[in-house]
Amino acid sequence: xxxxxxxxxxxxxxxxxxxxxxxxxxxxxxxxxxxxxxxxxxxxxxxxxxxxxxxxxxxxxxxxxxxxxxxxxxxxxxxxxxxxxxxxxxxxxxxxxxxxxxxxxxxxxxxxxxxxxxxxxxxxxxxxxxxxxxxxxxxxxxxxxxxxxxxxxxxxxxxxxxxxxxxxxxxxxxxxxxxxxxxxxxxxxxxxxxxxxxxxxxxxxxxxxxxxxxxxxxxxxxxxxxxxxxxxxxxxxxxxxxxxxxxxxxxxxxxxxxxxxxxxxxxxxxxxxxxxxxxxxxxxxxxxxxxxxxxxxxxxxxxxx
Length: 305
Hints:
By secondary structure, the protein is of the alpha+beta class. It folds into 3 domains: 3-62 and 198-222, Pseudouridine synthase (2-Layer Sandwich), CATH 3.30.2350.10; 64-196, 2-Layer Sandwich (Pseudouridine synthase); 226-289, Archaeosine Trna-guanine Transglycosylase, Chain: A, domain 4. It has 6 helices and 16 strands. Strands 1, 2, 3, 4, 5, 8, 9, 10 and 11 form a 9-stranded mixed β-sheet that branches. The protein has a 5-stranded mixed β-sheet with strand order 12-14-15-16-13, with helices on one face. A two-stranded antiparallel ribbon has the order 6-7. Helix 1 (15-26) packs parallel to helix 5 (207-215).
């Protein structure tokens, strides 16, 4: 079983919890995810299954989009609503113009300090493990990029936002720093990821929906169509002889007229067998072989999403 499933992660589960549930539902050991979500956060968490776990390397710097709510008035040790208050609560009435101007200061390439409760490592130990033990956590600031940060509305002490960010950006840290600048403290009250790379919330399934479809024998319906993966790479269909050579790791000439350095190689319409790198002209060498044997033809014609 090889493929990609877009999960709508519920609040309260870690990304690893979702991976473990995916393993149990699918009866598949080889399951990974593309981009960690905090337990409090919900939304898009793509799971890569089987040989397609090898595609994870292409998504390490994927752009992400979020919608969420920042609550002003006090800060927390985790920088979100799951933590303990670290400042006295203040009564705050926000003004849209003020918060929008404040948000504008975070757009672009900025220096950001990750939250102490994060997976960032200090001498090989995840920061959150030290923070849980009340040990001092000193993390270096890192350069991140916030491509869009729009305040959608304010009401009382809460501001709703939409953000589009480069990989490695912590919206919890943004909320915390906004509270510091405003002088009243703030934390991230809720966060929903609406996309990761080409994966969108509209196409996501809950774990319960995936479980039901698997029990019904409709596994094909849970997977993203392989030709929708890595849309920036052209797709090329290899004939049987070329496909066999690619599966064995050999270079082949392929009918590709693009000037792309890398391409997706298919056998038939849905079998993604390799990511290949151009050697010269139309000669390509498989960088990653995803399928080493021809796919078995299923009875009937199931459709992937």
